[in-house]
Design goal:
single chain; Jelly Rolls; RmlC-like_jellyroll; Cupin domain-containing protein; 11 strands; mainly beta; seven-stranded mixed β-sheet; four-stranded antiparallel β-sheet
Length: 125
């Protein structure tokens, strides 16, 4: 049985601004539950941001999955739309060009996260 897990994608549109897109990752039955295909990664970065973190518009340094290990982040894209990603949530940043996005700490909490950089040819869907 095919199952899908949902994540959010941040990407640069034709307008040069970042946007959100909800995508689904296919997962297949596995002896321990469900599992996706393997995606090629080029590195892993551990990061901790302060409780006052407030980073104005910036692009992602690379295509990367972001996994929130502890704490949350509020992301704002070019349209002004905001989303909060909490502990345990995963999103993919592909807005490596254009205006980028804003990221801020939530509720005055430190955030610990894991960044998994992707090979250029990997498509996250």
């Amino acid at each position: 049985m095919t199952k899908k897990t949902k994540i959010t994608r941040l990407y640069t549109g034709d307008d040069g601004q970042s946007h959100f897109e909800d995508i689904e990752i296919d997962m297949e039955d596995n002896i321990v539950g469900h599992i996706s295909k393997t995606y090629g990664a080029t590195g892993i970065v551990f990061r901790e941001t302060s409780e006052s973190y407030d980073y104005d518009f910036h692009v992602a340094p690379a295509r990367q999955y972001v996994v929130n290990l502890e704490g949350a982040v509020e992301i704002t894209v070019g349209s002004g739309e905001k989303r909060v990603f909490d502990t345990g949530e995963v999103f993919i940043c592909e807005d490596t060009t254009g205006q980028g996005h804003i990221s801020r700490a939530v509720n005055g909490q430190v955030r610990k996260s894991l960044f998994v950089t992707l090979e250029d040819n990997e498509i996250a869907r």
